[in-house]
């Protein structure tokens, strides 16, 4: 095993989560997941989708709490159908809904859950204290949870997920119910856990704009199906095409560039041109000058992650993302 629990085979670290054609139908006919094949690498992964997309169902299957109707899922190398108990001992889970007893202290609660993951009494107590310190509840650790704010309760849920030295954290809507400052603090905390502690983290959220800030990888699901999966770096780098907008004469410019061998795609008021090499910039600039056109803007195109993940993305961008031969 690797230090953080992901199994290693001949020195090659495998994905922390792998699903193959995963499906889940609930009694009554609701299809929550269908044909879902994804692979989650170590790091921080955002699992995004609207309410009802199937995120919580996926998490319950990954924890071995719910059997899939079709397909397979492996977590830290273990089959969720047969090794649920093993997986739950190695994975920290922060549930979406409030599930905290109001009349026990944070220390008692987190220690108790540490015992339930199999830790001896002293280790559970020590790890609970440590986890509560990490989430910023050291001072308040002996207070009854019922007296806590929503933000503090979310942090208790995160702390209990941290005990037992997990190799993976599954966090279901961790910013639920928090105000903007509380959301920022929770996201910063998750980012610190994922980067400084080196624990693989999966954060389920319906707010893409929020979790994209802390993730290395994003997996978007819609109606239980995979919409898109990609690393953040591959999405935020400049795509290789140029957007040019002229006040007037766009048709003449397109014809001129076409005559010089460039492929031009109109998009709203702009022309999009694949950038095969540096010469394209000069060619476009010279064409605008030669035709005497008023130039509004000329820029290499960047896309916001949210735009790339929108449902219409694959068809809308496909025709311009690939430079033409
Ligand atoms: N126990 C159940 N029985 C029947 N249908 C269910 C059950 N649990 C979830 N569903 C349905 O399965 C679909 C996926 O639900 P799920 O809770 O996994 O989505 P989600 O993305 O986590 O959404 P949310 O963030 O609102 O919880 C929804 O249509 C939901 O109504």
TrEMBL record:
CDD domains: ABC_DR_subfamily_A (cd03230). It comes from the Bacteria. Gene3D superfamilies: P-loop containing nucleotide triphosphate hydrolases (3.40.50.300). Belongs to the ABC transporter superfamily. This is ABC transporter ATP-binding protein. One of its GO terms (molecular function) is ATP hydrolysis activity. Keywords: ATP-binding, Nucleotide-binding, Transport. The keyword Metal-binding does not apply. InterPro entries: AAA+_ATPase, ABC_transporter-like_ATP-bd, P-loop_NTPase. SUPFAM superfamilies: P-loop containing nucleoside triphosphate hydrolases.
């Amino acid at each position: 095993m690797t230090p953080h629990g992901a199994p290693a085979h001949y020195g090659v670290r495998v994905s922390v989560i792998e699903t193959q054609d995963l499906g889940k139908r609930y009694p009554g006919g609701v299809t929550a997941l269908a044909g879902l094949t994804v692979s989650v690498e170590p790091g921080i992964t955002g699992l995004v989708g609207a309410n009802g997309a199937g995120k919580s169902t996926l998490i319950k299957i990954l924890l071995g709490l719910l059997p899939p109707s079709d397909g397979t899922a492996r977590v830290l190398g273990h089959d969720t159908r047969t090794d649920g108990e093993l997986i739950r001992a190695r994975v920290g889970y922060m549930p979406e809904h409030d599930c905290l007893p109001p009349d026990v202290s944070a220390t008692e609660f987190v220690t108790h859950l540490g015992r339930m993951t199999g830790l001896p009494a002293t280790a559970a107590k020590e790890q609970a204290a440590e986890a509560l310190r990490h989430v910023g509840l050291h001072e308040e650790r002996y207070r009854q949870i019922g007296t806590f704010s929503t933000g503090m309760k979310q942090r208790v849920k995160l702390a209990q997920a941290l005990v037992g030295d997990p190799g993976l954290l599954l966090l279901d809507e961790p910013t639920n119910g928090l105000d903007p400052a509380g959301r920022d603090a929770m996201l910063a905390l998750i980012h610190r856990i994922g980067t400084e502690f080196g624990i693989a983290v999966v954060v389920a959220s319906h707010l893409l704009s929020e979790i994209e800030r802390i993730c290395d990888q994003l997996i978007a699901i819609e109606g239980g199906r995979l919409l898109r999966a990609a690393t953040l770096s591959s999405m935020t780098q400049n795509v290789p095409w140029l957007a040019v907008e002229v006040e007037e004469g766009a048709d003449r410019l397109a014809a001129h560039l076409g005559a010089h061998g460039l492929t031009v795609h109109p998009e709203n008021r702009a022309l999009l041109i694949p950038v095969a090499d540096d010469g394209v910039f000069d060619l476009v600039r010279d064409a605008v000058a030669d035709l005497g056109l008023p130039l509004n803007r000329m820029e290499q195109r960047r896309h916001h992650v949210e735009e790339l993940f929108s449902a219409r993305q694959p068809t809308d961008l496909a025709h311009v993302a690939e430079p033409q031969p």
